[in-house]
Amino acid sequence: MLTKLWVNIDAFMSSCEGVTAIEYAVIAVAVAGGAFAVFGNSGFEDALQGAMDKLTAWASGNAPT
Questions:
Q1: Spatial contact of 44 and 36, defined as CB atoms under 8 Å apart
Q2: What's the gap between Cα 62 and its chain centre?
Q3: Residues 6+ positions from 57 with CB-CB distance below 8 Å
Q4: What's the per-residue H, E or C state across the chain?
């Protein structure tokens, strides 16, 4: 019983799956911060809205050619 517990604890401590998710979150925050710095507040909102409009049009089959 104690050996099985030790094996499970060792496997948990050597797992790197959670670290990857945290790294992706840090990268996403950095990218969002960079986009905010480049576009500013209103420019960022306009750029994001334009991108969403294009994606919506493309998904519905009304994309401009």
A1: yes
A2: 27
A3: 63, 64
A4: CHHHHHHHHHHHHHCCHHHHHHHHHHHHHHHHHHHHHHHHHHHHHHHHHHHHHHHHHHHCCCCCC
- Reading the block at residue 41, the tokens are 């507040």
Residues 40, 41, 43: CA angle, nearest 5 degrees: 65
The 8 Å CB, 24+ separation contacts for 12-18 are: none
Sorted by where each begins, the domain ranges of the chain are: 40-65
Kindly give the confidence (pLDDT) of every residue in the chain, 65 residues in length, as a single tens digit, with 9 standing for 90 and above.
Answer: 678 777 877 777 676 666 677 788 888 888 888 877 877 777 777 878 888 898 888 888 876 65
